[in-house]
Amino acid sequence: xxxxxxxxxxxxxxxxxxxxxPSTPGLYLVDNSDGASVFVGLSGGSxxxxxxxxxxxxxLTTGTTLQGGVNPVLxxxxxxxxxxxxxxxxxxxxxxxxNFGPSSGTATLSEKGNSIFGxxxxxxxxxxxxxxxxxxxxLTGGVGPLSGFLFKGSSTGALNSGGSNYSAAIMLTxxxxxTYLDDTTLTINSASLTRVSVPDSGMSLVLLGLGLTxxxxxxxxxxxxx
Length: 226
Hints:
mainly beta; eleven-stranded antiparallel β-sheet; globular; disordered C terminus
């Protein structure tokens, strides 16, 4: 069994996967009870999965990069993920993408959804190594565990990629029961660039002078006509 750190210890830890963790962007699901795993590569900015992962039945689960560049937005949406009301297993769902930034600013992780007979914990990370599923730094401190109907939560942290491009990931850990209509979004906002006022080298005064001259000429023309 292959074990590899997905995110730093402050996030959740490693997935006990039965196969090597992928190093290309996409959606990765792991049943931590038996190591069963599924990977779906990124295509057109998103990756989706419906099917079984170990003891879990998953439907319409999608990771999407809504926006790239220096202000990326990643979204991980779970239609449903069911293990059973008395299940003690956990499922990790990770969405990872690359080539963001460089960025320096704030990162916000927000989650809302529903969980019956279980709970959901969200975390996010980034790595200037710019490798998918190789995130090293906890961005926001995480959200949860959350449970019940219509739960929601958020956390905020700082990000400074030091002028480098980076990878980013959202990871959800579902513990037992059933989770459905869960939506988690990671939003990174770089500090606004300061707009510098550039002197106009006296052009405004030139235009003002031309305007006054034109008015003078027009006044003399009216006087002559009269």
